[in-house]
Amino acid sequence: MLGADELLLPILYIEISDLSTENPDEAVALVARAQYVDWHTNRLLEPQSREYRIAVNALAQRLLDIAKKVAEIQFRHELNSDPDDDGVDGITDIVAQVEALLPDWLDAVMGEKSVSVQITAIWDQHVGQVLKLRRRKAPPSAVLSTQIRMAREMLPMAERGLKDSQVYLTRSVELDPLVSALARLVAEHPDSFPIGGAD
């Protein structure tokens, strides 16, 4: 809401392949669009080493600079805001955005639960078969064949789980500032947005 991209500061602990805004993985594209700190070499340093302490100090200074910049943006935003505004327009816009994003987020959450149940069922079924084959001293090729079938059945579930997790991450990042802004508006204007009803 403040137009402050600095509020997001990913720290990269490993090298990311194809770290670009065009990456089909929305989480990777989001990091590429934002500022970030590359720590994939710093994470291997000894915490007591001079290089590690310098890197930590640089990160702390970066966070301090970001906090100052965001505070300035917030101050200018409050100076330019209408003191007579009761927040109704703002909250209506935010609720509309949340309502637009929430169905995808909920579908991803429910999809993850469904995938988890299905993967557990596939695992239990095939592991049970493998145990029976081993008790019967079946040839290793029979055990391997069962494990391959299990892997083939699990692969679509894993792909669906990956897709759901990407949607969940993307929508969570989009919803977080909206929900925070909504809570702030309600807190700032409690008379305009009463919570709860009469007994």
Characterise the protein shown here.
- The protein has 199 residues and is mostly helical.
- It has two domains: 5-80, no CATH class; 88-188.
- 68% of the residues lie in helices and 2% in strands.
- The chain has helices spanning 26-33, 50-80, 88-135, 140-188, and strands at residues 11-12, 37-38.
- A two-stranded parallel sheet has the order 1-2.
- Helix 3 packs antiparallel against helix 4 (140-188).
- The chain is flat.
- The protein starts with 10 loop residues before the first strand and ends in an 11-residue tail after the last helix.
Précis, in short:
The protein is an all-alpha fold. The chain has helices spanning 26-33, 50-80, 88-135, 140-188; strands spanning 11-12, 37-38. Helix 1 links the parallel strand 1 and strand 2.
Q: What class do helices, strands and sheet pairing give?
A: mainly alpha
**Can you count the beta strands?**
2
Biggest sheet layout: 2 strands, parallel
Fraction of residues in β-strands: under 5%
Individual helix count: 4
Cα end-to-end separation: 36 Å
Evaluate the radius of gyration. 25 Å
Name the helix and strand elements from N-terminus to C-terminus, one letter apiece: EHEHHH
The tally of domains stands at 2
Q: List low-confidence stretches.
A: none
Mean pLDDT over all positions:
82
Strand order of the largest sheet: 1-2
Q: What is the multimeric organization of the chains shown?
A: single chain
Overall morphology: flat
Helix fraction?
Answer: 55-70%
